[in-house]
């Protein structure tokens, strides 16, 4: 190796830079190589950052969702969240798969009772089936009175809400189920 190459190699060596640049602990510029100096954060190309909440459990950890060209490109913990302070568990860290995963379904799948195969339904048909079943369960379990007291309720169905629904969503769901006569309304966040 020529003398100029040796000098260039020695000056590029992190230990040499640590002692000559005043970065004694080696945690600043001395630790950077030419490669790390040219790296960019994978989130730097995002068009916008949307604040969100992890959908997996009752904790409600904050997430920063990075969007480019209308598509989610990266999800990480929100350091501004007083709940999680930028941290996510393994499930929360993998929540990008909810939006971009290859296993994500974009159509309604239905398996008939005792059926062995899934079939594709259009959304209107599926919503009509759900509405019919809710009304049928409501009517079958309807109690106009119990022990001579007027109740006007149904035990035909119940609701267990998701843990990451906010207060407004929970309020609207409670109003819906109460209007339908349901009395068994609970939320996962309280369990």
Automatic annotation (TrEMBL):
Belongs to the prokaryotic molybdopterin-containing oxidoreductase family. Pfam families: Molybdop_Fe4S4 (PF04879). The keyword 4Fe-4S applies. GO terms for molecular function: 4 iron, 4 sulfur cluster binding; electron transfer activity; molybdenum ion binding; oxidoreductase activity. One of its GO terms (biological process) is anaerobic respiration. Its cofactor is [4Fe-4S] cluster. This is Anaerobic dehydrogenase, typically selenocysteine-containing. Coiled coil: none annotated. SUPFAM superfamilies: Formate dehydrogenase/DMSO reductase, domains 1-3 (SSF53706). One of its GO terms (cellular component) is cell envelope. InterPro entries: Mopterin_OxRdtase_4Fe-4S_dom. Residues 47-103 form the 4Fe-4S Mo/W bis-MGD-type domain. It is found in: Cell envelope. Its main location: other. Keywords: 4Fe-4S, Iron, Iron-sulfur, Metal-binding, Oxidoreductase.
